[in-house]
Amino acid sequence: MNVTTERKMSGSNLPTPTIIGAEGSRVVRAGFIPLVDASVLIAAAEFGFAEREGLRLDLVRDVSWANVRDRLAFRQFDVAHMLSPMPVASMLGLGSNPSPTITPFSLGRGGNAITLSTRLFARMQSAASLADGAGAMAHARALAQVIAEMKAAGEAPLTLGMTYPFSSHNYEFRYWLAAGGIDPDTEVRLVVVPPPMTSDALAAGAIDGFCVGAPWNMVASERGVGRIVAAKQDIWPSAPEKVLAMRPEWAESRPETVSRLLVALDAAARWCDDPENHGDLAAVLADPRSIGAPVDIIRHVLSGEFSLDAHGNRRVIEKYFTFHAQYAGYPRPSHALWIYSQMIRWGQVAYSEEGMAAAARAYRPDLYRTALGADAAPIDDDFRIEGDRSGDSFMDGHVFDPRKLEEYVRQFPVASPRIDRQSRGPDFD
């Protein structure tokens, strides 16, 4: 997808791009997956924010996170839309093709949800007498009841889809399941399904549920094949979602390009946060070159307006997507360490002081501050305690102190039995 910025920001008067030759070409090639949380990258290209900074952002739509990872590593991409845990995994040497990767910018928060098949949800309603307005924890406990019944009857385990082993979706799905008393390693089967395929896989009965980013949850609910049972905000509102990823040596050799790119993305994120722009943004995202989903669905998910199922049950989640407000773009190292804690919890890696340091190095607030200035960064601790602020709690009430990471992991009643041994984890690439 070669973006030419033919659709400009409504009412904008863009200055003539600055011509700079010190770092060579100002074309930045970026890979992305068709999800609404790629909005900031797409808006920066389509509405002139990159051009304003003297850059041409060349966006390439890809089909899987493993492809994006490999094409960034092999220098087919300069930067990439990437799952927030992927740079952490890369710095820990995890996965089939680990290559050092950093992020100086978060592309926002929110956007994920957990959807179960209508057949499974009906069984949960019967088992637990679920009310229409039941919350995420009630749904998880109802699913635990169904799984117990299935085990007693000798039925095969449920198959649940997520996007990648080192993904927010994997960790959030596991967190939700475990909070309800379900062991994700022994009581269900987790498999990788590319986001655009999740609705079809659910309809075909290949999977019984999935955790994925917008708009694919609502695509399934609108089709009448799925019921949304939890959103990212229910599990942990501040959880990082997608990030801008790049190779460390690329960033080091092009400091001015990196700074200009972050300035462009920061401006685009501000624009994406404004509800008045959601109509224009939804139209661009609905284009087959971007996401290729119905424009009405995209407009609704940008506003946090959900059709939970095909029976008229609805839910509005305020700030379902946050692209800029509350320092959503800031790459906070404590978030990287929470991701590391989940890798430990689920047996993908063993705890070590060296691992903590490597995980924290994946998130680069220094590059963010260099580009956007100290005033653009939060004044609190980069290694702050998470989950102890109003409106920002974990669904099970736990609090994460990155300085007590190992202690945090060990307090959970459901954790991987592999916690004490080094494991690269499953690699479903």
UniProtKB/TrEMBL annotation:
Keyword Membrane set for record: yes
Pfam families recorded: NMT1_2
InterPro entries listed in its UniProt record: NrtA/CpmA_ABC-bd_dom
Keywords in alphabetical order: Cell inner membrane, Cell membrane, Membrane, Transport
Domain of life assignment: Bacteria
Coarse class of the protein's main subcellular location: membrane
PANTHER family, A to Z: ALIPHATIC SULFONATES-BINDING PROTEIN-RELATED, BLL4572 PROTEIN
The protein's name: ABC transporter substrate-binding protein
Organism whose genome encodes this protein: Pseudorhizobium pelagicum
